[in-house]
Design a protein that fits this description.
Elements: H1 2-22, H2 31-51, H3 53-61, H4 70-95, H5 110-133, H6 135-146, H7 155-178, H8 183-186, H9 189-196, H10 204-209, H11 222-254
Helix pairs in contact: 1-2, 1-6, 2-4, 4-5, 5-11
């Protein structure tokens, strides 16, 4: 059971890191990474569901059973919303693709780009709530990995975790320095046409407005992207976790 939980933990951490990196399409080499990793994360989500299929099946069977806890019902609803929002991100991403599926892109579809961005932000919040609901499980797995049954710290486990963390930080930094995004691929098609026509300097009024659909994603340094979005998750996880904890205590008192 512990081995399976470790596999699930590694997959979930990888999913979380990849997802927040996808929040900025200029990370690493830009759209190639953004689009390919977006498809990979879709497959990883299906694997995540497969690893938890027993819970899914049992919850579906008992969804109308009064014995099913409110937390389980809420968790099931949350997972359905997550699945829908992730599917919406992938579908809209394919439709506006410029690298993997360029033939689907019939021009700059502003509505699809906005939907893609909205569903991404909604999913970010939903994932934060999902993590909060499973925080006890996460801490339980970490305790089993890092502590013996007697309560002593496993120095070997802590050393491995520290090494993997340093390796991850070093690899992110190396990629940030050596892999640069293709800014041309990130420009809207109309902007390309203006540049190709030799009209490199747009009218002042047009420059001030810029392109209404042009993305502003801030710093594309991967470690900063990860830190900033994990910070956002913290503001979601902490209140949801304590609200759920308080509700759990109330349920125990009423039983």
């Amino acid at each position: 059971m512990l081995k399976k939980n470790i596999v699930k933990m590694i997959l979930d951490i990888s999913l979380a890191i990849t997802f927040v990196l996808l929040m900025n399409p200029r990370v690493f080499n830009g759209l190639p990474f953004h689009e390919v990793a977006g498809l990979v994360i879709g497959v990883a989500v299906l694997i995540h569901i497969g690893l938890n299929y027993k819970w899914v099946v049992n919850t579906v069977k008992n969804i109308f059973n009064r014995s099913l806890s409110g937390k389980a019902r809420f968790g099931f609803l949350l997972n359905v919303l997550l699945l829908v929002s992730m599917a919406a991100i992938i579908v809209t991403g394919i439709l506006i693709s410029k690298v993997v599926f360029p033939h689907f892109s019939g021009g700059e579809n502003h509505a699809l780009r906005e939907l893609h961005d909205i569903f991404s932000k909604v999913t970010l919040v939903l994932v934060g709530v999902h993590i909060a609901l499973h925080w006890q499980w996460i801490m339980g797995v970490f305790r089993k990995i890092c502590k013996t049954k007697e309560g002593y710290w496993r120095k070997s486990s802590l050393a491995i975790i520290a090494f993997l963390l340093l390796l991850f930080v070093a690899s992110m930094q190396w990629l940030a320095v050596n892999v640069k995004p293709n800014e041309e691929a990130l420009k809207p098609k109309f902007e390309h046409k203006v540049a190709q026509a030799g009209e490199m300097t747009a009218p002042a009024g047009f420059r001030e407005r810029e392109f209404p659909h042009k993305e502003h994603h801030g710093n594309s340094q991967p470690l900063l992207v990860i830190f900033s979005h994990f910070t956002i998750w913290t503001f979601v996880i902490v209140p949801v976790y304590y609200i759920e904890k308080r509700m759990r205590k109330k349920r125990k008192l009423t039983v």
